[in-house]
Amino acid sequence: QVQLVESGGGLVQAGGSLRLSCAASGRSFSNYVMGWFRQAPGKEREFVAAINWSRSSTYYTDSVKGRFTISRDNAKNTVYLQMNSLKPEDAGVYYCALRLGPIAQAMAPPGRVDYWGKGTLVTVSS
What we know:
Blueprint: E1 3-7, E2 10-13, E3 18-25, E4 32-39, E5 46-51, E6 58-60, E7 68-73, E8 78-83, E9 92-100, E10 115-116, E11 120-125
Parallel strand pairs: 2-11
Antiparallel strand pairs: 1-3, 3-8, 4-5, 4-9, 5-6, 7-8, 9-10, 9-11
């Protein structure tokens, strides 16, 4: 079984920055995509960003391009999401996701996610 544990959420003012982390444990494998989704109150969970195993490919939803950066450290089985210029509409619970396979874009809907974290809350004050 795979466990994904997020950290780094919190309260930030609009225009500020946060860095989320997600550590994977429980199973040894390679060539998997890691990514992030988010869910605001009353809304459906939406895809945010994904990165492939070799870090050669990243994929972002349009609303975060140029502001968010996804990265990963395979030695630590950890994925990061650097969020800059945060807006109130970025607020929500951010979920770490893992998909077995090589293609980052395949995590975005209607793609499959194999494992989910429990989420970390990001609050952006205006």
